[in-house]
Amino acid sequence: MTTSTINLGAALTEFGRRVLLVDFDPQGALSVGLGIQPHQLELTTYNLLMERSVGIDEVLLKTGVPGMDLLPSNIDLSAAEVQLVNEVAREQTLARALAPVIDDYDFVLIDCQPSLGLLTVNALTAADGVIIPLECEFFSLRGVALLIDTIDKVQQRLNPRLRLEGILATMYDGRTLHGREVYGRVLEAFGEKVFDTVISRTVRFPETTVAGEPITTWAPASNGAIAYRELAMEVLSRS
Fold first, then answer.
1. Is the pTM value of this prediction over 0.90?
2. Nearest to 43, CA basis, from 56, 33, 34, 30
3. What is the rounded CA–CA span in Å between residue 211 and residue 77?
4. Using CA atoms, how far apart are residues 84 and 101, in angstroms rounded to an integer?
């Protein structure tokens, strides 16, 4: 998920779009993937959510990619899951926090943890669409059904704008029967909701995490970079 958020965001900037990435995972993987040390940050998405006195401009960071900004996160955010329970309109906290800058960006990409807790519900309440990256493994399919059920509930109760934008097959290895079978099942189950773009397994992605930059700038001619540009074009055509 995090790899796809960074690389889709960077690819969208190549098409002239302004992008905000929101690290909404207490592990801070999105921030690390962009070369930021989360434990050294004084202000993060946690402060933005939980402290009225903190403005979004105080938390926003520029990334190394022109046109792409970041709201970083670290382990502090895990406390928000508990503290938000007592807040009024707790599911709308992220949407309220983003409101002052929402018109400054063409796309806001929120990177969530895989759990379906209150943080994820906040992200779904703030969003217009959901992209589900699905690893081409059998056990991943069951998690998607639970997530789609949550999306339906949020749509009915909190955010009627919300829709499933698409399912992105990742970690695909067409050389194995297992990979081809799982991809076939994904197409069978979700049809035209599945993006045409498929993200194959590649050794390049771990390198980009260490480098702290997207694959589109780290290895611009690689298959991975080309795939994320194709995904960006699909996202633009669907939005």
1. yes
2. 56
3. 25
4. 22
Nearest to 131 by CA among 236, 40, 15, 25: 236
- The two structure tokens encoding residue 19: 């992008």
Give the phi and the psi of residue 162 in degrees, each rounded to 5: -65, 135
Which are the contacts of 221, defined by CB distance < 8 A and separation ≥ 6?
A: none
User: pLDDT of the chain along its 239 residues, tens only?
Assistant: 788 999 999 999 999 999 999 999 999 999 999 999 888 899 999 999 999 999 999 999 999 999 999 999 999 999 998 899 888 889 999 999 999 999 999 999 999 987 778 999 999 999 999 999 988 777 677 788 888 899 999 999 999 999 999 999 998 887 888 888 888 988 998 899 999 999 987 656 666 666 688 989 988 998 889 999 999 999 999 87
Distance CA 2, CA 87 (A): 28
